[in-house]
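Each record in this resource describes a single protein on a pair of labelled lines. With that in mind, the following record should read easily:

===
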Amino acid sequence: MPIPQVSDDGLFCQEVGNWTEEKHSLVSLYAKLFSTAMKQKWDERVYIELYAGAGYSKIEGTSRFIAGSPIRALALEDPFDKYIFCERDATQLDALKRRVERDFPNAKVSFIEGDCNQKVDDILAKIPPHSHGHRVLSLCFVDPFDIGVKFKTLQRLSKRFVDFLILLALYMDANRNYETYVKEEKIKINEFLDSTTWRGEWRSEQKKGVPLPRFLAESFSKSMSEKLSFQPQPFYKMKAIVIPEKNVRLYRLALFSRNPLAYTFWDQVLKYHTAQRSLWE
């Protein structure tokens, strides 16, 4: 799949680690399989990002610019019928909007400024209504820098026909801030898991030697399965995103769908991506 080649265009651009390319590669490949396969099966396909960013990123310590997931999704051979980009940072959203309007003037795109947890009504309003005569399927990429996305946000969005690709910031945020999050008065993990009993469950798993990131990942998958009827995602299928030169884990990228076919696509993504990495190394 051709990757959009970009350069400095003078608009705002956030600096990121080189591991970001792997994340974008995985997401865009899944989006490609999803969009093409569903083209003839659904009347309208919608691509949603809850943390859309500016569209371009600059690799730290280099002069290289890369296309972010919104631009890659817009550039697909079989593009989605509609795009919804939510971003709370006004500067980043403005840069994304200007890039989209310049390079994809015919795309049907909605831009929503604000915290996705507070803008669920606005996001839902932009998703075309589903009916017997007009079937709508969405793919939602959730790409936070921490574990700040609230389970209730995903729960409300899941009332529509939607698959989620979620970046779980289990190492970079939850693990590093463990001492803060476990305090009884802190509710961030409560809201992430939609659970008030996780501390007791964690203490039990901790005695078995289960690391916190794995516990949170599996607890999140359990919540998605038991409360929202998504198929449970095993930990080994949650792709680890690492700092390549240090082999330090940062995130887990996980797919959640109610349809087994989605996991067939995900297996293809993981297999292809692994094969591609072997060619690089």
